[in-house]
Design a protein that fits this description.
The chain is α+β, with helices and mostly antiparallel strands and about 140 residues long. It has one domain. Helices cover about 50% and strands about 20% of the residues. The chain has a four-stranded antiparallel beta sheet. A hairpin with a 2-residue loop joins β2 and β3 (about 25-35).
Amino acid sequence: MVIKSSITILFENPFWIGLYERIYDNQYEVCKITFGAEPKDYEVYDFLLQNWHKLKFSPAVKVDRSDERKINPKRMQREINSQLQNKGIGTKAQQALKLQHEQSKLNSKLQKRENKEAEKERQFTLRQEKKKAKHKGR
């Protein structure tokens, strides 16, 4: 079982956002966190500790399993520097966020439809009761 997580802080005009990515049991999930001003490291850490249970992750996306091996410290430093230079959202993160957005859209559409049907049903029963009351001469 592989468990990995990472957070990337980006500036997306006009706000700073954090992309919290996690891989758990070959399932990739991402969560977008909106910050106001540029957050400090300790603020991000504190936010994650206090709001961990409130984070809404995207639906899981299947990920190919990659074997972990020891990485030379110099190579790791180069990779860290290249990630720091990379400005933008990874394609997997984009896909996962898009999927989350589409699912929330579908859920809201379904909820609106159900509310509309319930309101129609309520109006219909009100009209029926009014007809019965008129018929009885009230």
